[in-house]
Amino acid sequence: MRNVTIVRVGGAFLIGGALAFMGVFAFLAARFNYPQVLDGNAAQVLPSLLATGATGRAVWAIYGFLPLIWIPAGVGAFHALRDVRTGSMRVAMLFALVAAVTMMLGLLRWPSIHWTLAQAYAVGSEADRAAIATTFAGLNSFLGNYIGEFLGELSFSLFFLLSGLAMLSRDSRFPRWVGFLGVFTAVAGLVGMFRNVTGIVDPVAAVNNYLLPLWMIIFGVSLLRHSPAILVRQPI
């Protein structure tokens, strides 16, 4: 019974996280031209960030902590699928943890370091602004592109891939179409994460922005509805 609760908690976090991600994404798209703004330089982005005010900073903070949902989701998926793919689901759970940490590092730069840079940029001299712009670009490259986007998206895509493949196992007690959707979402994520390397994958990345929350909701509902196999003790 305890494992059933863990699985359902993981499912609830996936659904709640998907809805929260969509809400935050919609706010930032309207107030901050997100995610297109990520391609801008300090002169374009930092004043816009500061203009979102305390509300914008609070939304960025919420966005930054949302990746924590991957931890209970990973544990719940492990307990739901451990009987069919124990080894791979342990790895999947670890990738969910890595995704949570790396995506938090990438996103939390906005209400913290970038916010401080934006305040300094607003009152800085030309020399100060040049130094701030260099720091801003370096942080975007390291924490944004490499840690948050590439490593973070790689990690949760592998979590989805391993979970989807486990769902396709005969004894998983999950609908096979859910497993196929998980594998498809994971592959789309693995392709889309190269958007900072080549524009060829931009259409895949754009589709994945909508596919990801859909899959998270379906994955979460599947965990909520999952019932473990009942082992019947044979008489001796």
- Tell me the total number of β-strands: 0
Number of domains: 1
Helix-strand sequence:
HHHHHHHHH
Coarse shape: elongated
**Oligomeric nature of the chains:** single chain
Distance between the termini: 26 Å
Please outline the major beta sheet.
none
Q: How does the helix and strand content classify structurally?
A: mainly alpha
Model description:
With 236 residues, this protein is mainly alpha-helical. It has one domain (2-225). Residues 230-236 have low confidence and may be disordered. It contains nine helices and no strands.
Offer a quick outline of the entry.
The chain has helices at residues 2-32, 42-51, 53-65, 70-81, 86-107, 110-123, 126-167, 176-192, 202-225.
Top keywords for this entry?
single chain; mainly alpha; 236 residues
Topology:
Layout: H1 2-32, H2 42-51, H3 53-65, H4 70-81, H5 86-107, H6 110-123, H7 126-167, H8 176-192, H9 202-225
